[in-house]
Amino acid sequence: MLGLMYLAGIMDYLIIIGLVAWLVSWIAKKNGGTSELWWLITVVVMLGLVLWDWPLMEIKFRHNCATQAGFTVNKTLDQWEAENPGIAETLSPTDGAPSTQEGNTTTYSLNQRFNWEITETPQWFHIRKQDERIVDKKTGEILAQYIDFNTDIPPLGLGIKRSGAYKLWMMKGSCERVGHKINRKRFSEFKHLLKYQKEINL
Question: What stretches of 31-124 show up as alpha helix (H) in DSSP?
Fold first, then answer.
């Protein structure tokens, strides 16, 4: 039902564009102007009122994905264990522990020594940067980092809660959706390794 309402809204707007463009071209023709030119100008302007930020978003989103997104390991578990002998054997996963929120950062405890931090930073044109880190609680050292980008346009079923949220054509879930291999799976495997001190059994 919501999808039909959304489609009806688009069709209504296209009809309005057509009527306004026809009216402008008719006035232009009556005054000796070129009706086809004014029809085209009117259509472009009225579409631009809604679509103006779409190409700008696409350019910035793809640039961010190409230059910033990806998975980085600053220190492996073996290296960390060598610097902290005997500690890994004492760690136990903190499953079910509540998350904490501070500003744009949500923190999940993986075990007594490691946190998983997720920071979402809004950018231009509905783009959001998602910065995920595995952090040593004691030293603050970042062992691994995963950066991805998405947009704050929600799926249609979640409703429209913010300005511009109706722009479903600008919805982006991840850089991987547009062809960038940024190794989300490897980050998840590394997070599991740090939390349980063992690799995922496939």
Answer: 35-51, 53-67, 77-83
